[in-house]
Amino acid sequence: MAKGQLALVLNAHLPFVRHPEYPRFLEERWLFEALSETYLPLLRLFRRLEADAVPFRLTMTVSPTLASMLGDKLLGERYAAYLETQLRLVAAEEKRLGADSVFGPVVALYSALYREDREDFETLYGRDVLGGFDFFYKKGRIDLITTGASHAFLPLYADSPEAVSAQIETAMVAHRRAFGKHPAGFWLPQLGWHPLIADALRAYNVQYTVITTRGALLGSPTPHRGSFAPVQCPNGLTVFVRDAAATKAVWSESEGYPADPVYRDFYRDIGFDLPIEYLAPYLEEERTRIFTGLKYWAITGSTADKRPYDPAAALVRAREHAANFLAARTAAAERAGPLMDRTPLMVCPYDAELFGHGWFEGIHWLESLFRQAKEFSLDIVSLSEYLRLYPESQVSTPEFSSWGDGGYAEVWLDGSNDWIYRHTFKAAERMTELAERFPDESGLRERILNQAAREVVLSMCSDWSLLMRAGKSSTFARRQVEDSISNFGKLYDMLCSNTVGTEWLTRLEKRNNIFPELNYRIFRKKR
Amino acid sequence: MNSEKLDSLSLEELYALADKMELDLPTGLERLFVMEEILDAAEEDSEDRRSSIDEALLVEEKKYSGSESDNLELRIGVPPQLEQRYNETMIRALVRDPSWAFAYWDLSDAEKSSMVGDESASPLFLRVVELDREGGDLKHGHFDIPVSPEDLQWYINLPRSGIRFRIDLCSRRGGGSGTRIRILARSNPVDSPRQELHPGSEGIDQAGLRLLQLSGIGDMRIHTQTSDNPIRIITSGMELQPGDSD
Fold first, then answer.
1. pLDDT digits (tens, 9 = 90+) for B17-42
2. Residues of A with CB below 8 A from B5's CB?
3. Most exposed of A287, A289, A503, B98 (fewest Cβ within 10 Å)?
4. pLDDT tens by residue, A291-339
5. Cβ–Cβ < 8 Å for A446, A509
């Protein structure tokens, strides 16, 4: 009998970035890099486990914005072009370093990676990566769940039921469109929970979600099984609790596994090391240095102490770290088990992009985890499976919380980003006003209303406020919010003044083509 | 930002960039020195940023590993000019954490005009009013924060965690015993989160307490009892003077 149950939850998400009006767009690379290093390698991992009959289970979000981009024809074409550019760069590097006994094997690694990516993307999936995830979803290996339509940080909007419902309902519709099923679970963007959103989630038949340990332990009443079992809100919503120790082991940049010196250094990239003239043919803009994805050094120490990356040694370490992780969870389960009336559960929610993209060896770590779990008397379960096993849990309402610094809303509400809420709340309020004024529109006016609703939903994206706070791509992040708010303002004015710029509207619809089934009436007043 | 990029800029553009970065450079410097100053400042800024943001953010930001778009305006044009205000009298409260709330507000042009014409109107202030968690009625009292007519937002240090409150945007008219308080706008009620265990936790048995410890409660700065913030003790209506209204 298993000593404990382990539930891995991955949130695959990127904000909506799509600019057809430009031939190439730098920030679209976020998607291409994640596809190359995380999403396609994850699918290869699933296939390897399946081929070896390893019974893996995973709960996973494919966010509505990511699903939209993965299903987009234009971005698919651009990703194919990106892969060709990467392969040309790798070929140049093979020419430069192929004979080098230290760096040659590292270049070969990238050559294999991008070739496999191209083969999978073009041939195996016919550019339909969502179909790849859907296959394992329908097979019951992974539970696909959804999250806020534009990944809004919901606690800050908790007392605006129309804004919260718009995020949830749009996500539900997008999930059904992508995968043909209603999701049982809902990933709270940034694990941002507020008691006021429990009813909204239940109203859309969400059965479960996940929150931080802190939010659960501060709940009312205190959960007497700690984080080793979920709690249930009075309305029946099951709330799983993140395991704090498992989080730290993987997530911590200073103490977590990814910080091990033997792993590949994310930041040391040839895009910043080699002469710009050499790199220029492979860059978005010829004189702007960027991360190319080709990184040859291990984390090791400062620049003078840096050692070349040794892929074989890194994979051995990833296996060791997986075993260490499982041993630590087993030890925790052995301590908790005798104190409980059910098998202890440890829920491990992470950003999917950490694996492969942020932590290059992370995919291998995951694979080792699935392969070794049985040796450690741990059952790896999905959250739905657990819920079928234990449909009832202690009734408790968790406290407002998130996984951001400080545990609340500090990341999404500070001097760098607080200006956005005046605009997003106003836009949501005006959208409700429009939906009430025009409840039954069709034709052109309905198109305007739908696009207006789309812009409001997009403006609420929590990634932009996070980037403003981080000071990374902050100008771009600011611009995304400004554009959405400005677009909404123009659409609002069109409806109020009864004048329509059809050409501009069509252009906007083509650019921000996300959520094609969005119905502006989701913003109608909640009565 | 890198030296090749800076190399492609004219001296005038380099000075403009330095100005944008709030570097106070003497005029007439050789371009090499201007470039060095800019690169040093950018490096320092990057180090400061990295040391000030938390680990989760560092992990998250790896998802966004493009170049810092310091030339965004060149790439995608000038940003739209957003309305800074919506010409309405309103106030909204948002809770950031157990200790801090954020409020933003505005006054309509008509409201502003009426105040300009009224010589007895004193500057605005925010009244933070604690409410009962269940019924929404006044519970303990309030405290006031003076704000200037130019202010449109404020971070408010809260007296305690786990309270329900609202924020009134007020003006005071007249003086002495004739003072009258006018509430210009009233915010949504909001709850600050608790940072101590639920009172009922005292009844948890030994096994439950051990499970809380195994869950990591010791590392979470969770308090055992409520404590007041000494600089923000809510008064029991002491500032209300006869003739006040709200």
1. 777 677 788 888 877 788 888 777 77
2. 287-289
3. A503
4. 999 999 999 877 677 899 999 999 999 999 999 999 999 999 999 999 9
5. no
**What was the ipTM of the complex prediction?**
0.93
Put simply, the answer to whether B198 touches A220 (Cβ < 8 Å) is yes
Question: Residue A408 is nearest to which of B4, B193, B198, comparing CB atoms?
Answer: B193
Q: What is the CATH number of domain A4-71+128-244+345-406?
A: 3.20.110.10
What secondary structure, in 3-state letters, does A170-237 show?
HHHHHHHHHHCCCCCEEECHHHCECHHHHHHHHHCCCCEEEECHHHHHCCECCCCCCCCCCEECCCCC
Q: Which of B94, B219, B223 to mutate to test the interface with A (most CBs of A within 10 A)?
A: B94
CA separation for the pair A149, A163 (Å, rounded) = 11
Strands B100-106, B153-157: parallel, antiparallel or unpaired by DSSP? Answer: antiparallel
A413-523: CATH homologous superfamily? Families 57/38 glycoside transferase, middle domain (1.20.1430.10)
- The contacts of residue B49 (CB under 8 Å, 6+ apart) are A470, A471, A472
Residues B181 and B142: beta-carbon distance below 8 Å: no
Nearest to B193 among A27, A399, A463 (CB): A399
Question: Which residues of chain A does B75 touch, with a Cβ-Cβ cutoff of 8 Å?
Answer: 22, 26, 285
Contact A214 B222 (CB under 8 A): yes
Strand partners, A241: A211
Residue A147: φ, ψ to 5°: -150, 180
- Cis before residue A398, ω within 30 degrees of 0? no
Residues 424-483 of A with CB under 8 A from B: 425-426, 463, 466-467, 469-473, 475-476, 478-479, 482-483
- pLDDT tens digits along A155-177: 999 999 999 999 999 999 999 99
Q: Which residues of B touch A407 (CB under 8 A)?
A: 97, 220
Which domain range does residue B175 map to? 83-246
